[in-house]
Amino acid sequence: MSESKDFVVNIGEAPAYPSSAEKAPKKSLFDGITSGKASAFISEWTPMGLVASYFIFSVCLYSFCSERWIAIFWFIYMCTNFYIAGATVLEAFMSITPCREARKVVTQAEEKGWLFPTPNDQLLILDLLIVAYLPNEKDIIMDRALYALEQIDYPSDKIRINILYNTPKPIEPLESELHALTDKFPHARVIKVPNSTSKADNLNYFFTLDTGSDLIAIYDCDHYPHPNAPRWAVERFIADKETDIVQGRCIIFNSEETLLTSMIAVEFDKIYAVSHPGRATMWGFGLFCGSNGYWRTSLLRDLKMNGDMLTEDIDSALRAFSRGSKTVHDLNVTSFELAPTTFQAFWKQRLRWAQGWAQASAVHAKMIYNQPQNVLHENYNRTFTARFGVLSLLLIRESSYYLVTQYTCLVLSFLITKFPTNGAELWKLVYFQYPVSQWLFLISIICLFATLWITNQVKSEFISRKMIVFFSVTYPFYLVLMATMGLYGHARQVVKYSSWNPTARS
Q1: What is the pLDDT of residues 235-245, one digit of tens each?
Q2: Where are the domains of the chain?
Q3: 359, 279 contact by CB (below 8 A)
């Protein structure tokens, strides 16, 4: 934590006119500031220049390519798109079983008057962490803390609600009000983490404390955990002693605020209710996603968070998987969060994610071929299916940014060199240059609609069919935008961009 320093000047002893020797440090300081600003400017804008150059070069290249090479590129991009669409729809179909099982469990609990299998006195001890960066989340932290303390339905002698926060400067009376919560709620703990500059620092500090818990739940400050979410998660650990991580479903609750939030809300339903549980079933492994995740305390304290990674959550999830941890996705462990309301906030958030995924992919791609080390469960062996799942998740997903944008550049080159004069010519130009592309394109469209149909079946109460239709129509453009952000993340990684931009909260 940064501390301000007071600079005292003795005016009575200061000469009226500084000597040239005394002026030198001022010039050096000015030069240092100017140099620092120049360096920050270059670091900030170089990735944009690299991405712009990439698009310009690619469009120009296709504009001068022969018809034979254009046909080869076209075929490669369409086939790859077919694979990605096929894998996505398979994950979607695989998610049907976890969804049915989640509904079955809820039905059984409802029939029993919401009596859970485990008696209260036999429940595991849980530390629930709410992690906050106060200047950014000072307007919402008290609301979320009170909600967690008052609404979460879990025996108070078995749970501790921990408010972990860092701030570069004191914020009063908020901090005093936060610490006063411990007087009113015996199961509250408020910790101002010293010398912290990130979420990873906050978490790692907490891991050094001996709290006696069996499990640790991690939540970002903007979340409202469902009152029964901790109970559902703990029941999963009790039912299966080999479960190491339970990742819940995150739902966007401000979906109606803007068109952007509605798009993100549909995307989150597609990711958390369809893709994650489907991938876990299909490839044999799940992932902790940063928030609404429950860990066995011993594992999390052993792994800690790597503060050098922009997405320390994904890194920790992959490190856990590398040791053979078992992560399950439970759709009943729900939490409600805010989506960025402005494009600027969305852009900063997704660029951080893109660069973080690029970092994590580069570090953990070795899981495709290496042997597990320090395994958590006896006789664990990484199967071929799991290894191919890692290949698909890390390398193929990262390379898909180039395939999507290259296809976009190819279409742009067509528009430049063979500009259509009517809609029919445009349709034929973009999609049906070659006979095989008709089938590949149509199958990809069917896969997309099948995935969105399954998403519609499990959509949250904050999502309307109108939002899903809008998402479907605009998805190709959204996909290109996300691929461009992926490239931008790669470019930032190349120039070693290291600024951490927290997501704006309101």
Answers
A1: 999 999 999 99
A2: 54-124+214-506
A3: no
